[in-house]
Amino acid sequence: MTAKDKLYIFDTTLRDGEQSPGASMTRDEKIRIAKMLEKMRVDIIEAGFAIASKGDFESIQAIAKAVKDSTICSLARAVPGDIERAAEAIKPANSGRIHTFIATSPIHMQYKLKMQPPQVLEQAVSAVKLARNHTDDVEFSLEDASRSEFDFMCKIIESVIDAGARTINLPDTVGYGEPEEYGAMFGRLINAIPNADKAIFSTHCHNDLGLAVANSLAAVMHGARQVECTINGLGERAGNAALEEIVMAVRTRQDMMPVETDLDATHIVPTSRLVSSITGFAVQPNKAIVGANAFAHESGIHQDGVLKHRETYEIMRAEDVGWNTNKLVLGKHSGRAAVKARFEALGITFDNPEALSAAFERFKDLADKKHEIFDEDLQALVSDVKPQS
Ligand code: KIV
Ligand code: ZN
Questions:
Q1: Does Iron appear among the keywords (predicted)?
Q2: What is the pLDDT at residue 387?
Q3: Which of 143, 146, 170, 237 to mutate to test the pocket of ligand 1 (most atoms within 8 A of CB)?
Q4: pLDDT at 388
Q5: What sign does the CA torsion over 268, 271, 277, 281 have?
Q6: Is 99 near ligand 1, meaning CB less than 6 Å away?
Q7: So what's the ipTM on this one?
Q8: I want to staple 92 with a disulfide (CB 3.0 to 4.6 A). Which of 64, 103, 249, 268 is the partner?
Q9: Ligand 1 neighbour 82 (Cβ under 6 A)
Q10: What's the CA angle centered on 11, arms 158 and 282, to 5 degrees?
Q11: Does the beta carbon of 215 sit less than 6 angstroms from any atom of ligand 1?
């Protein structure tokens, strides 16, 4: 087996995630989440946007003091005031990063920045140089990269790497990219830029078309070695790529992935719950990895299969991402094997197959009237039958 590259996990729940309307968090809440991310061995935590508010600045500073094993990062526009404020906020960190950005797409340069490409290039280079006066760890993002012109991106990336940027992030800011095109963009840029080997290329995808995770993985297949993502996919508009999905896709499909992560995935579910309870953003039941139904089986055929061998219907283990166990939900689609197994787990066995059949028939009658059958329902079903226990 050939050695795999490390994929750096950059979590932006506390910055881009907080940009979800209604998801703002207090300083103490952010510290609690940051500590969980550290425990999970996230490589880089983007703790906020220091210039955005006094509260954001103080949160970044407090996280930089409290978290010692992950790199702590602040976002900054490519302007001196933002960079100085970001530098001040990350000062207490063991390892601190400044993440500076400017838009590079024609539509953003013309209408939002009202700047010509040469001015954008100059501002980007000055920002990176200024940030490098404060830390060796400088990330530069080409905002709206997926709608930017290739030749301009080549020029600006080569220049900011020369100026000292060590991570180059190519965001799909508006979630417009599609996997083949977005992935190929990384491959083409990495091949075309002469000093590309001096930087780590990073992906940052939004989920407007539901493609954020697919686009991030496509970028990884074409050379990206950092993924920016959030817990539960929280983020602007339709959200960002979900950390849990990226990490488990990389782990579950090691057969085809060129990378591996250092993440301790057993903290995924507790972290997801913490973020959900703090922000008040519920996780949909069918959400991959962290949804309540992600490891639940109701149909009889599936339950029978899982009871015989878990891998018949499970591609990863619930315990590996922090659930207690997988769950066989008893309902009207459940089969005899699952119902018998649950009775047995409750200490209830039957003298003969006919007794089990009678109990199973009662179960089916009840399941027609009730969404889910709980242990107490099963106990009640056989309370007047003499079970062998
Ligand atoms: O989506 C985006 O482009 C961003 C940048 C600031 C990195 O969040
Ligand atoms: Zn973003």
A1: no
A2: 47
A3: 143
A4: 47
A5: negative
A6: no
A7: 0.99
A8: 64
A9: no
A10: 140
A11: no
- Helix, strand or coil for residue 242? strand
Ligand 1 proximity of 141 Cβ (cutoff 6 Å): yes
SS3 of residue 327 by DSSP: strand
Whole-structure pTM value: 0.93
Q: Could you tell me the mean pLDDT of each successive run of 10 residues in the chain, 389 residues long? A: 90 97 95 98 98 97 98 98 98 98 98 98 98 98 98 98 98 98 98 98 98 98 98 97 98 98 97 95 96 94 94 95 90 94 90 93 94 91 65
Binding site: residue ranges?
16, 204, 206, 240
DSSP state letters, 25-74: --HHHHHHHHHHHHHTT-SEEEEEEGGG-HHHHHHHHHHHHH--SSEEEE
Under 8 Å between Cβ of 42 and 247: no
Q: State the Cα–Cα distance between residues 330 and 208, nearest whole angstrom.
A: 36
Q: Which residue, judged by its Cα, is nearest atom 5 of ligand 1?
A: 143
- Residues 322, 244 contacting (CB under 8 angstroms): no
Instruction: State the closest ligand 1 atom to the C-alpha of 144, by its place in the atom list counted from 1.
Output: 3
| Residue-level pLDDT at 160 | 99
